[in-house]
Amino acid sequence: MADGDTQTNTEEFEPAVEGEIAESDFDHLAGIVTDGLIGAVGGLVGTAAMSIGLFVASSLGAFDMASFGILADLTGLDVLFPANAVAVGFLVFLGGGMLTWPLLFAATAAYLPGERFATKGLPYGFVLWTGFVLAFSQGIDGGILTLALYAVLTLVSHFAYGFSLGAVFDYLSDRPDTLV
Asked: Which residues cross the membrane (predicted)?
């Protein structure tokens, strides 16, 4: 300050940014748990919708439900119930549909085309289908028509999964305690 300056300007010592009070970790943890439950519910609904399509494909001879036994074999869980390897494999499939894929969807949904989660789920289902159609095509006999039916019905099933998963996210993410 100059000798004759009587102004006291304390503005430079005030914080430059006025922020909100930081939320406690519990609030974030509760939001994360809530979002995880929303993902699990969405995955359950989506897997149920996809399973209906796969059951239709199986009844038409375009999908072999024994393919789920491969999942049990890959994870080593077929040892627990060797007589029901298909059921154990389906439970592994359900676990992936309820945990892994909903978490990936929540992480990538901002980059998918569409306004709402339900419409974003359609391209997401397509991406998942590209791996599924190759991994589960074993045991498809009957020629090119059966293979085409397999491809179409599993694609529709994956669209149903993605749309249902996204629709549950849309429905439940409007709740005030979510981070999605």
From this structure: 37-58, 79-101, 121-140, 147-169
Euclidean distance between CA atoms 156 and 71, whole angstroms: 22
Q: How many CB atoms lie within 10 A of CB 88?
A: 22
Please report the beta strands in 29-114, taking only residues with DSSP state E, as ranges in sequence order. Answer: none
The structure tokens 């085409």 sit at 148
Q: Is 158 helix (H, G, I), strand (E, B) or coil?
A: helix
Residues 6+ away with beta carbon under 8 Å from 81:
87, 88
Mean pLDDT, 10 residues at a time, the chain of 180 residues: 59 55 59 84 96 95 90 88 91 94 93 96 98 87 90 98 96 67
CA-to-CA dists, residue 136 to 44, 76, 85, angstroms: 20, 18, 15
The residue assigned the tokens 């519990």 is 26
